[in-house]
Amino acid sequence: MANGGFSQKFEQWLYGRNGSDDVARLCANVALVLVVVDLFTGTRWLSGVALCLIVYALYRAFSKDVAARARENEAFMSKLGPARPWVSSPVATIKDHRDYKYMKCPDCGQRCRVPRGKGKVRVTCRACHKKFEAKA
Ligand SMILES: [Zn+2]
């Protein structure tokens, strides 16, 4: 009974808060890497930086100003360019790059995705509809 009451109160407390976003996840992941590096190098200040990143990630996750956090998140993510999927979902991106190869359209420079291991394939650019052959 008491346990159910606590989880209900916690859910109410979480309601209307930002939750985990790309920037918070990136901060947490970088913090984890810094802690591991710190374990092997013994530079204590890296753990301090990691702690600051975790505090910032928690601040973002529990912030009630969801609109402001969403704007910051989008502003940061839009600056990343082609690195965006690697930050947003690294595991999905690794899987994607295992199954697909990316190449640029020779005409317009549009990024085209072709399945890996299919040998020579005929690619049609989605932007300019130019057809070209590529090794995948
Ligand atoms: Zn094209």
From TrEMBL:
Keywords: Membrane, Transmembrane, Transmembrane helix. It comes from the Bacteria. The chain crosses the membrane at residues 45-62. The keyword Transmembrane helix applies. The keyword Transmembrane applies. This is Zn-finger containing protein. It comes from Kribbibacterium absianum. The lineage of its organism: Bacteria, Bacillati, Actinomycetota, Coriobacteriia, Coriobacteriales.
